[in-house]
Amino acid sequence: MKIWHISDTHTYHEQLRIPEGIDMVIHSGDCSNPRDPYNNEPEVREFLGWYKSLPIEYKIYVAGNHDTSIEKRLVQPIDFAEAGILYLEDDYVMVEGLKIFGSPYTPNFGNWSFMKDRVKLERMWRVAIEEDVDILVTHGPPKGILDKSYNREGVFEMCGDKSLLNRVLEVQPKYHLFGHIHNHKDIINAGMQKLSKYDTWFSNGSVVTDNKFGFLSSNGNIFEI
User: Fold this and answer.
1) Which of 97, 142, 203, 213 has the greatest number of C-beta atoms within 10 Å?
2) What is the pLDDT of residue 62?
3) Are strands 98-103 and 148-150 parallel, antiparallel or unpaired?
4) What are the helix (H) ranges across the chain?
């Protein structure tokens, strides 16, 4: 199965080049922008129309911290289902023998959606991520993997979730897909990475660069499983 992973399109999805021969597309969150859920809703619904139209058999969506209208249920899971999209929010789906888990949650940072304290996330990942998962989809990255940025004081940091990393290295899914942390100035996060001691491939599918919204710096990642 050939899979196209994209993330953090932030309303610029129309600029993506739709690859041919794709069996499944997985979007790991942030199709929208506004914090106010009522302003956010039209952007999510416009994205849903585009996503539904893609000539790809299987479509999966996991929400992100900017998808405020989804968290507030102005856009509901049934809206995805009626569009032929598999929406995952802390649950699993089986697609042609592949067990796929999706979660939108990231560590607290600002007043956005689908965020939890890091201590609560540690407990959640340990229970929610089962050992036989094939593809793990989260909005945010694990600590130290395609998660580099600068904080508000301009200090370089790794923004990912350490407890998520710990669980991924225990379970070792075939693929871990995420976004949330974009390319930033001289830092490239978009792409794929594998650690030499482990079997998991990591994919940051974010397609934009911080402070340069309006054009895409990536077209997502494609892999076969």
Assistant:
1) 203
2) 98
3) unpaired
4) 37-53, 68-71, 77-82, 118-128, 162-171
